[in-house]
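Sample entry (311 residues):
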Amino acid sequence: MIIKTGLRNAGSFPARTAGYEIFPSRNGRIAACQPYKYPTRDNDLAVGEQVFQADNRQEYLSVRLTMSHLFSAMGADSRGQAVENKAVITSPGLVPAEIERSFSLAGPEFAADFAGLANIVFCPLVLEVDDRGVRWSPGFELGMFYHEPVLQRSFLSQAKYLDDPARIVFVSAFSAEKLPIPGEELHWSLSFLVGRVKINALAVAKGLSDFGESARDCYAQIYQIRLTQNLLEQTLAADPSFNSNSKFMIILKYLIGFDQMVGKAANLMTPAEKQRLAGLFGGESVDTTRRYNQAFVEAMLGTVDKEPTAS
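Predicted structure, serialized as tokens:
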């Protein structure tokens, strides 16, 4: 059985907006594509799939991406580096299984939040550009430049395929060294962006219009911590020997790093923002969250001989 798969054109969008730049680009724009499946008349389909025929013409079907799909779409060269100005647009249900699995393992709340995204736009590299220079960024969501409405309107007018911009995230698929990021590691970037999308929606629903960028970042970073703690607990429950895996120590290092970022964001928040933030987490303050995370890391370290160091 052969089922043809490929990537079809989905328009393009600006490569730079509100302090973020997508690289590499061509003439200031990024070409977008979407994965598809095109079975021939004699091919069988997997359970649950359908093919629609009209006048002997078959429709394209959306297909779950693989990591190789993702990287080949961006023209990864023999060294694995991105060389094409292409981004890949997909829905949460069609991302590579390695990425979706992290949210599912972390628990129903996180799986639902991830599934609630409208689209994920996988970009070769997302760069943050400001007066301090140019540096790699894990990605962005459009709420990050709501405070610049002119730029937002300009971006959206040129990216008309975005049906629900408040629920779309753009993520770097390659590292700062321009190497492909494994699927099981991309959730580190995505979890922060999902947290940002979630707090933006909560801010609208609860009338928190004065909830600033630092407060939203802090929420997203606490969200990362909670997802990571749950993911680690579930992984250990399924495989008690995981604490001898090198990835176990990497996860603890991430938790230490997330804790440091929460502290930095909290230092920029007003007392009123901290109080509102605590209300969103059942009354748990930032300080309490940090103390619990530190205790969590120490408890996990108690099961191994080596301690991670903050990176």
